[in-house]
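User: I'll paste a sequence; please echo it back and then give the predicted structure.

Assistant: Echoing your sequence first, then the prediction.
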Amino acid sequence: MVQQRWLRIIPLALIMYTVAYIDRTNVNLILDPKISSMMKDLAMNDEMKGQAIGIFFYGYLLLQIPGSILASRWSARKTISICLFAWGISAALCGLASSIGQFEWMRFFLGMSESAVFPATAVLLTQWFPRAERARANSLWLLCQPIAIAGTGPITGYLLDHYQWQKTFFIEGALPFLFLPFWWFYIRDHPREANWISPAERDHLETTLSAEAAELQPAQPIPWYVRLRHPSIFVMVALYFFHNCAAYGCSGFFTSTLDSRSFTGLQKGVFYAVPYILTAFLMVINSWHSDKTGERRGHVAIAYFVSGTSLILSVVTREHFWVSYGFLCFAIPGPYVAMCPFWTIPAETLPPAALAMVVGLVNAFGNLGGYVGPRFTGWVKNETNSTAIPFIALGVGMLLCVGFAYLMPKSKPRVVAT
């Protein structure tokens, strides 16, 4: 029998973050000049496109740490509810932009509105899923990222084929408001607050989670600023920076690799979706095997190795469209496949009191790669009229992450509650 928390917490967290990703990534197609007039209407070039995509992450930096602390000390459920309302407004207002400056401000506010969502959800899952289940819980939640992009591709492509870009922003910006009531009434922060799980399951969760928290708690209190000086945190920030450079640098300019063929907006959306459908399958397999073996770092490293190698080979084979596209389909999944075991490591190696702050710090500064990646790719493409050089550079960054993965702390053996 499937435990109720898997049917209640995970699906709603997945849908919530899928909606966030739709409003975050729909610009990758809306800013494609072959299927939308937005770049022409706002007088944008490829460098400006990269700036507009990436400026989201300046706003995304602002509330990571405050949001994670608020979620852990107040309520993850309420924190995310506020974010849902705020990012829905920001996403819809992108459709009212009449200049590049106005659009960048709306993207900035969208990033700020979403910035507390990731750490708050990470905190929520640690309050519902013990260590032996956490990589699977993370993977099922984080499936939202490839699912959102795979789903957004055809839907956004279809909307752009039939409507202007402004209406596309309005329609997709309405989704957070439609979902907010479900999140507010069906999610609870702790098992002890939920009346929809059995007493046996509630007692098991409270006992196991308390035992795991006690194991990670240091004998003597350690000031928060001392914890933040630990070398592993800087390794995680560096790894997550290169991770996001590749994830957003590739996704932001992926459709430009399809320009050698005459595809409609819907067709481009479908080809854009294929690697993210593959990503969803690989995420589940990698996280399941990571939980089965209890090993984390190697599962992170192999994902980055396959991604970096495939991205470089996609450039080398560019004269053969379908071969190059095939390599891109295996290059795109790497950052997402690595995320599930990656985000399990802090929860398994840090005291609960430090977890929220570290997750916020790593996610905040690591996500600056989400600005640098598209900005660098757009600048080089604008200068060279090709994504070859930036894609090779992003691939090298993925290979660097392989080494960083083995510098992260090793997870401790699991606690078995008695």
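The chain has a mean pLDDT of 82. The chain is about 75% helix and 0% strand.
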